[in-house]
Amino acid sequence: MKSMKGTLLLKKMKFIQSLNTLKHTLVPHHHQNPEVITSALSVSEPIKDFKDKEEEEVGAEFEDKDIKNNPLLNFEEKCPPEGKECVVLYTTSLRSIRKTFEDCQAIRFLLESFKVKFYERDVSMDLEFREELWRVLGCRVIPPKLFIKGKYIGGADEVVILHEQGMLKKLFEGIPLVLNNTLCACCGNKRFVVCFNCNGSRKVFVDGESGNELCIRCPDCNENGLVKCSICC
């Protein structure tokens, strides 16, 4: 009888011990040691860093793909007036500075060889073009300067390098071609003609209040007595 009671007591003690162990395992997380929680959370940090790096690589891959499809994204957006969807070349026809003149001639010849339609703005023909160029670039510069679809491509050196690398042709994608090489019958592709109002003198005579003729500045032409060609400009 005593032996049976001892056996029951032993089983009861083992049951209580196992019950205490089960309770200990079911304790809520807020009763756990903070150091254990911190170490558990820190395990996820490398995973987060890996995900961030992966997202950056994917973003860079899409960016490279966009630049490959549209090389103009590599260039700074500086759009001259009415130059958002066309090619604009600022040049000078003055020969006073030989290198500048030759650079302008070289870039013009290069554009003509691609047979793309471009708008030449000669700063020596009209000071308005010079002020316009300085305003777009934010400083005083000398031509030639090339713009394609509102993007600033650069001067003679930059354009020649792009041509040698085979990149210039890609920048002209979407630009209309000029298949007819005939000269403008009005201006000979100079884009300007002599003012018909003052014949280039920049002066016109008008009747004054007292019946006398007054000489005033011609309102139609620029500082050189020229007006833009009505056919090709």
UniProtKB/TrEMBL annotation:
CDD domains membership: GRX_GRX_like
Q: What is the originating organism of this protein?
A: Jatropha curcas (Barbados nut)
Under the heading PROSITE patterns, the entry gives:
GLUTAREDOXIN_2
Q: Return the Pfam families for the record.
A: Glutaredoxin, GRXCR1-2_C
| Protein name stated in the entry | Glutaredoxin domain-containing protein
Q: Which SUPFAM superfamilies match?
A: Thioredoxin-like
Glutaredoxin domain ranges (all copies)? 87-153
Tell me which InterPro entries the record gives: Glutaredoxin, Thioredoxin-like_sf
